[in-house]
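To: structure desk
From: M.T.
Subject: fold request, one chain
Message: Could you run this one when you get a chance? Sequence is below, nothing fancy, just the single chain.
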Amino acid sequence: MKRRQYKGDVVPHGEKMRGISDKKEIAIRPATSADYGFIRALSKEAFSLYGDYEEIIPWWFMHPDVMTMVSFENMRSHSFAMLYVMSGEILAIAVEPEFQGCGIGTELLNHIERIASQLGVERLLLHTAIENEVAVMFFHSASFSVIGKEEGYYPRGQAALIMNKKIGVEYKAKGTCTS
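Reply: Done. Structure tokens follow.
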């Protein structure tokens, strides 16, 4: 399958990500096939509590209407996000544990939102496990609202909150990175 190409493949104007030390040069770009191993490993680590994603991650990664972005510093990836452009659904977002709380997830989410807006998406949608309190708080702080609940959503049977956000409300990173 041919992957869709997106303009603005790095944080606009090469700016440093807010919430990250000025000494660290971190950027966001579209994922390439070279990122697949990182995305697969991080998704396994981040999402294994909810089920096996071994089959769905490659399908999402190769789908021409799924935009996958990674953040990186000095050629080392920290996080990734996957957006199904046709519906505006954030399929996955994950940050390596040692970089959580540094503002990387915030900037990645803001970047996804900017690109989605440029592509004409008016609302972002996502599912997150009800018991994943950190993710629920993260998305609430990013102006997402709960619009429903889906029982048995995850492969292991956990329920998910359905959340959405109207495009255009940006938020600031709260954490500071010590890594």
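Reply (cont.): Residues 24-126 form a domain with the Aminopeptidase fold (CATH 3.40.630.30). Let me know if you need anything else for the meeting.
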